[in-house]
C-alpha cells in the first residue's frame, strides 16, 4: 500500500514537471492532486504515459521563461516561489481579509530576505540532486522523477498501459493511508 501513496505522488510530480500546485488537505497528506479530467487531455476516459509526459513538458516549458530548454537556478526559484504562494494563499488573514497577527508584527524586509535565502537554497539543492550532467541547469529529462515510468505502471493495476478512472481513484484513496 505504501507504494500506492508514493506512486500517486510521483505521477503527480511527473505530471507537473517540477511539481503541481500543492494545497494540503486535512484528509490527505501531500500535494493536492489534479482531477482525472484535468489529466485526461484527450477526454478518452483513460490516462496514458504520453498524456502525463506532455503535461509535464508543458509545465516545464511554462517554467522555462527564457526559452532555452533548460531551467536555471533563477527559473527554479521562480517556480518554487509560485508553488509556495499557491500553498499559502490567504492563510494568516482574518475572515474579513484583515491582516492576521503574524503579518502585523513581522518585518517585511526580514521576511523577504529569509524567503529569498530559502528560495536560493531550495534551487541549489534541487540542482545538486537532479543536475546529472553538472551543467548548472535542468533539462526536461533531468526534471522528471527517475521512477516515473515504474510509478505509472504501479497505478496501472491491470497492466494495460492506461490508467482508468477506477485505478486513479483507488490509488488516490490509498494515498493518505499511513498503513500503505
Labels describing this entry:
180 residues, mainly alpha, two-stranded antiparallel ribbon, Recoverin, domain 1, 9 helices, disordered N terminus, 56% helix
Folded structure, characterized:
The protein is mainly alpha-helical. The protein has one domain: Recoverin, domain 1 (Orthogonal Bundle). Helix content is 56%, strand content 3%. The chain has nine helices and two strands. It has a two-stranded antiparallel sheet. Helix 1 crosses helix 8. The longest helix has 23 residues, at 108-130. It is globular and about 50 Å long. The termini are close together. The model is unreliable at 1-29 (pLDDT under 50).
List the helices and strands and how they pair.
Blueprint: H1 2-15, H2 36-39, E1 46-48, H3 49-63, H4 73-88, H5 101-105, H6 108-130, H7 140-143, H8 148-155, E2 162-164, H9 165-175
Antiparallel strand pairs: 1-2
Helix pairs in contact: 1-3, 1-8, 1-9, 4-6
Instruction: List the helices and strands in order.
Output: HHEHHHHHHEH
Assigned CATH architecture: Orthogonal Bundle
How many domains? The number is 1
Mean pLDDT: 78
The largest sheet is: 2 strands, antiparallel
Total helical segments: 9
The rounded Rg comes to 18 Å
- The CATH superfamily title: EF-hand
Low-confidence stretches: 1-29
Assign the CATH class.
Answer: Mainly Alpha
Q: Which strand order do you get reading across the main beta sheet?
A: 1-2
β-strand percent reads under 5%
**CATH-assigned fold name:** Recoverin, domain 1
Number of strands: 2
The dominant shape is globular
Distance between the termini: 3 Å
Helix content: 55-70%
Q: Structural class per helix/strand content?
A: mainly alpha
